[in-house]
Amino acid sequence: MSIKQSLAERFPNRPRPSRRGRLKALGLALLIHLALVAMLVVGVSWKSSEPPPVIAELWTPAPAMSQPQPQPEPRPAPKPEPEPAPRPEPKPEPPPEPKPDPQIAIEKAKREAEEKRKAEEKRRAEEERKQQLAEEQKRKAEEERKQKLALEQKRKAEEERKQKLAEEQKRKAEEERKQKLAEEQKRKAEEERQQKLAEEKKRKAAEQARRERAEEDRRRAEYLERLQQAAGGSETGAAKGAASGGASGARGSVGGSGADAGYQAKVASAIRASTNFLVPPDLSGNPKAEFAVRLREDCSIASVTLRKSSGHSGWDIAAERGIQRTDPFPRRSDGTCPSSFVIDRGPRDN
Q1: 37 with 106: CB under 8 angstroms?
Q2: Collapsed DSSP state (helix, strand, coil) of residue 343
Q3: Torsions phi, psi of 300, nearest 5?
Q4: Residue 279: in which H helix or E strand, if any?
Q5: What is the DSSP string of 46-82?
Q6: Are the beta carbons of 319 and 286 closer than 8 angstroms?
Q7: Measured distance CA(77)–CA(172) in Å, rounded
Q8: Do 230 and 238 form a contact (C-beta atoms < 8 A)?
Q9: What burial class does residue 106 get, using C-beta atoms within 10 Å of its C-beta: 0-12 exposed, 13-18 middle, 19+ buried?
Q10: What pLDDT score does 126 carry?
Q11: How many CB atoms lie within 10 A of CB 171?
């Protein structure tokens, strides 16, 4: 990366210099380089002047004599005169230093300037690298902080969502429980109402049946009284009525006469015990269904034929089944069975 690029990246808003400014900067740089070269030339020429000669004397001390043994004092001898010290030879003058070449100094200055520029560029590049590394670390730290913050917000949002969902489920469960409780209470109230209504209808039906039974007993008593009166007037008519099996008798009689009136009640009781029918609440009156019944000699049923419908198909079927379930029919008091007779019954007969 060049200095220009690095400066452009570091200072993106720096204004671009004009042509006049660039020329002025170039001239100033050339002037500074010329001044530097002149100073180098002056310094080299100042150091290249010949130094003055130096004179020095060299002398060596006399060798020390060994210490003599003590002897009797000799006579003092005359002291010899010291020899003059030899004159030192003059030092050879050093050869004059060669004058430096200005071109070499310029090249050297250029190399140093280039090295300084490269070192400065390297230092700036290192600083930029460190700054970029610090910015990258700062950016990564900021991204990690933002990521952690986002995760924390997401976790909190998830917890809030779960909490709201749990509260919603709890509220729905409570509403369902209340709704089920209300439905259960409503169902129980309806069952109680239906039960009360059924009991009321049953009570009314039982009351109606009791009244009709009382009316039927009254009519039967009147009929028996008429039969007894008729039997007292003519034995022949009674015998004839017994032989015919009651085919021309009143409705509700079962092939009997005044002589065998208990047989009627026995057959009616047997048929009533074998008949299963729930009287509808909306059924008005006591419609009668008329059946022609033929018996064998052993009192078993040979056939049952519906001669007249009551207008209520359910009762017709229930009455016919009750007759069929009575098989075999009870015998008369003398042990015989009527060959045929007619039965008319209503749903409220007892």
Answers
A1: yes
A2: strand
A3: -80, 155
A4: none
A5: HHTSPPPP-------PPPPPPPPPP----PPPPPPPP
A6: no
A7: 148
A8: yes
A9: middle
A10: 92
A11: 10
User: For the chain, where are the E strands, in sequence order?
Assistant: 289-295, 301-308, 340-345
How many residues would you count in the chain? 350
pLDDT tens across 247-270, in order?
Answer: 333 333 444 443 356 777 888 888
Mean pLDDT of the chain: 76
In sequence order, the 6+-apart residues with CB closer than 8 A to the CB of 40 are 102, 105, 106, 109
In one-letter notation, the amino acid at residue 46 is W
Beta-bridge mates of residue 340: 294
Predicted confidence (pLDDT) per residue in 26-52, tens digit: 888 989 999 888 888 877 765 555 555
Q: Are 319 and 291 in contact (CB under 8 A)?
A: yes
CA angle 152, 157, 163 (to 5 degrees): 125
Residues of the chain with pLDDT under 50: 66, 233-259
239: which 2 tokens?
Answer: 């015998």
Per the CB < 8 A criterion, the answer to whether 325 and 336 are in contact is: no
